[in-house]
Amino acid sequence: DIQMTQSPSTLSASVGDRVTITCRASQSINSWLAWYQQKPGKAPKLLIYKASSLQSGVPSRFSGSGSGTEFTLTISSLQPDDFATYYCQHYNNYMYTFGQGTNLEIK
Amino acid sequence: QVQLVQSGAEVKKPGASVKVSCKASGYTFTGYYIQWVRQAPGQGLEWMAWVNPNSGGTNYAQKFQGRITMTWDTSIRTAYMELSSLTSNDTAVYYCARLIKLFGSSDTWGQGTLVTVSS
């Protein structure tokens, strides 16, 4: 099975900062990667699909990049509403796997 | 609007089974897969399975093979996930989500169903 390693597990940042979260696959998954945001007690929210496509309605400060085995989610200028947990999810060979999550907290 | 509404919280004893429902509205039910994801208290998301209500195709994470059953009723636009032989490790919030196979991602999620396994 393909393993997804997400880093960092915790990220402390301030409003206005630019932050990057990384997801690494143990083998190539082409561009089959999505990013989700989850707030406490809520269902995940899709931010990015196919590694770099912005989901409708998601602010443009969110962007995704990468292919193969390394992918990044970037928030260009953190807003108060962005403090949450972020997960990557990959699809390969009919299976889906989530990364361990990154807790983005206020510094 | 596109919406998934799940059944309410459940409390089960170890060894029992639980069946969670996921009712779809606002889109063609058979046009999209449904995936099931769970989240234990304080933990991350764990992918469980997907079902294609159109073809009947399913796939499960290996750890749930033999314990999970996916069914659906197209007449009432509802998918079901049944998990058997419950242990305390199955205590979690269970989510269904509309899966866009073309993009390998889920744009719509249910509100979650808390399943508590306790003696």
Task: Explain the overall architecture.
With 107 residues, chain A is mostly beta strands. Helices cover 0% and strands 53% of the residues of chain A. Chain A has strands spanning 4-7, 10-13, 19-25, 33-38, 45-49, 53-54, 62-67, 70-75, 85-92, 95-98, 102-106. Chain A is globular, with a radius of gyration of 13 Å. Chain B has 119 residues and is mainly beta. Chain B has strands at residues 3-6, 10-12, 18-25, 33-39, 45-51, 58-60, 68-73, 78-83, 92-100, 105-109, 113-117. In chain B, strands 2, 4, 5, 6, 9, 10 and 11 form a 7-stranded mixed β-sheet that branches. Chain B has a 4-stranded antiparallel β-sheet with strand order 1-3-8-7, with no helix packed on it. The radius of gyration of chain B is 14 Å and the shape is globular.
Task: Give the gist of this structure.
The complex is a heterodimer of chains A (about 110) and B (about 120). Chain A is an all-beta fold and about 110 residues long.
Please write out the topology.
The complex is a heterodimer of chains A (107) and B (119).
Chain A: E1 4-7, E2 10-13, E3 19-25, E4 33-38, E5 45-49, E6 53-54, E7 62-67, E8 70-75, E9 85-92, E10 95-98, E11 102-106
Parallel strand pairs in A: 2-11
Antiparallel strand pairs in A: 1-3, 3-8, 4-5, 4-9, 5-6, 7-8, 9-10, 9-11
Chain B: E1 3-6, E2 10-12, E3 18-25, E4 33-39, E5 45-51, E6 58-60, E7 68-73, E8 78-83, E9 92-100, E10 105-109, E11 113-117
Parallel strand pairs in B: 2-11
Antiparallel strand pairs in B: 1-3, 3-8, 4-5, 4-9, 5-6, 7-8, 9-10, 9-11
Which structural class do you get from the secondary structure elements of chain A?
A: mainly beta
Major β-sheet profile of chain A: 7 strands, mixed
Amino-to-carboxy terminus distance of chain A? 36 Å
Question: How would you spell out the order of helices and strands of chain B?
Answer: EEEEEEEEEEE
3D shape of chain A: globular
Order of helices and strands of chain A: EEEEEEEEEEE
Relative strand content of chain A: over 45%
The radius of gyration of chain B is: 14 Å
The whole-number mean of residue pLDDT values of chain A reads: 94
Shape of chain B: globular
Question: Uncertain segments of chain B of ≥5 residues (pLDDT<50)?
Answer: none
Count up the helices of chain A: 0
Helical fraction of chain A: under 10%
Number of strands of chain A: 11
Mean pLDDT of chain B: 96
How many separate helices of chain B? Answer: 0
